[in-house]
Design a protein that fits this description.
alpha+beta, Adenine-n6-DNA-methyltransferase TaqI, Chain A, domain 2, four-stranded antiparallel sheet, 10 helices, 29 strands, about 35% helix, elongated
Length: about 450
């Protein structure tokens, strides 16, 4: 790939130089701010996500702003002004409404909306946009339109915008296809790993052992000499607050209880209040649970002492082998139990019922078999873990390459004129549910108590 033959410096540090025949104008000259307020009853709610502007899913956490939202028209660019939602933006291809925290811009001139979409969602623009932000809290600030309108944007000729879009759609589709293939492999490996764990904690390690009915149709048979108790016999709820000096922890479905990286603004999407005295303390070896995400597996034994959202459940665990308990309770078997014990109108905000949870059966092998299972699982899963790690690293490299390619092309560092675009299958960036919805769920939880 080659650069343009001639460049000139522009009054925008984030751009540096642009092709000499490109224009460079402030956002305020290119867009006007749309501030019309509407109701979500008249204009369907949209979500402003890292995957662009999408129809709000029925299971997304809803705010109480239904009659006080901003109008969005197809072709408008929408960006979340908060730094903790970095990268949540895009050109909307739908009419609808968004939360007031978002800035809505409507173009003053003819643009290729796909070029605008690529440009304003690029890593370079994102860094420049949030550079203008301000606020009281170090890791949570807002960029206002009054600052945003002074940012300079590159303006290629219209025909060149069209070619840039054709080229990027082609190249990004190839990258997206590779990423999706690798993510599918990760899912398959994760399923195999979960099967190993599920089989070990429901059937043990001896394939010739005598079996008996578990009493649960979808669970099937368990070893005849294993016993079953209720969770209420081993879990005791606790609630200790006023320890804001302790580190923040998160409870996630992939790993259970982890230390929350408050410095990583790109992945730290959930609001952190200034006053943490209301947060609950979790001690090492206690069981912590996100009650609204229990049906997804967001819980586990903590290896740390810290604090979590006041909406979470914390339990002391009267069970000797906590490693076995952790493996067992986080297996798909128990995720199904917790799903059945959760209630709610919207799937994404199911709330775990403590009375129902207390009646969940817990299968208990003899102590020597618990130890054997705990030793077996990491060894049996090692090959799957290695494959998942390798594929995850490959996905990260592809995503990094995609981001750089987009930034280089939309800012004129690469000349794509004259490149013939073959026929290809267009592949969207992601089919996954937006992280904004997870973040909104937890923000709602943190306000509950």
């Amino acid at each position: 790939m080659r650069a343009y033959s001639e460049y000139c410096r522009v009054d925008a540090e984030w751009l540096g130089s642009l092709p000499s025949h490109w224009d460079c104008k402030k956002i305020g000259a290119l867009f006007s701010q749309r501030k019309e307020k509407v109701s979500d009853k008249d204009f369907a709610p949209l979500s402003v996500t890292k995957n662009g502007i999408l129809p709000q899913l029925s299971n997304a956490a809803k705010s109480n702003d239904g009659d006080n939202r901003k109008l969005v028209r197809a072709g408008d660019f929408v960006i979340n002004s908060r730094s903790d939602r970095k990268g949540s933006c895009g050109v909307s291809f739908l009419d609808g409404s968004v939360s007031l925290i978002n800035i809505v811009l409507t173009p003053r001139q003819d643009w290729n909306s796909r070029y605008v979409h690529y440009l304003l969602r690029s890593h370079l623009f994102s860094e420049e946009y949030y550079h203008y932000g301000r606020g009281i809290v170090a890791d949570l600030w807002t960029t206002r339109y009054s600052e945003m309108k002074n940012i300079y944007l590159p303006v290629p000729p219209c025909a060149e915008q069209d070619q840039i879009v054709r080229y990027l759609d082609w190249q990004v589709s190839k990258i997206n296809k590779l990423i999706k293939a690798k993510k599918k492999q990760i899912t398959l490996l994760d399923d195999l790993k979960r099967s190993v764990v599920n089989d070990a904690i429901t059937h043990g390690l001896n394939p010739n052992v005598e079996m008996k009915s578990s009493g649960v149709v979808w669970l099937g048979d368990i070893p005849a000499h294993w016993t079953t108790i209720k969770l209420r016999q081993i879990l005791t709820p606790v609630s200790i607050k006023n320890h804001p000096e302790l580190p923040l922890l998160s409870v996630v479905r992939e790993k259970g209880v982890i230390i929350r990286d408050v410095e990583d603004k790109d992945s730290n999407h959930n609001y952190i209040p200034d006053d943490l005295s209301g947060y609950k303390m979790v001690k090492k070896d206690q069981f912590a649970m996100n009650k609204m995400k229990a049906w997804q597996g967001s819980y586990g034994i903590s290896n740390y002492t810290g604090i979590v959202s006041p909406a979470y459940y914390i339990f002391n665990v009267a069970f000797d082998n906590l490693k076995y308990f952790h493996y067992a309770i986080r297996s798909k078997v128990y995720v199904n139990f917790f799903a059945q014990a959760s209630d709610g109108i919207r799937v994404g905000q199911w709330d775990l019922s403590i009375p129902k949870m207390k009646e969940i059966p817990f299968i208990v092998p003899p102590e020597d078999e618990q130890k054997a299972i705990v030793e077996y699982i990491p060894k049996a899963c090692a090959k799957y873990d290695a494959g998942i790690t390798r594929l995850t690293e490959e996905v990260a490299l592809l995503e990094e390459y995609r981001a750089k390619l987009i930034s280089d092309v939309v800012t004129g560092q690469i000349d794509v004129r004259g490149i013939e675009i073959p026929e290809y299958e267009y592949v969207e960036e992601s089919d996954e549910e937006s992280d904004e919805m997870d973040g909104a769920d937890e923000e709602a939880e943190e306000q509950e108590e």
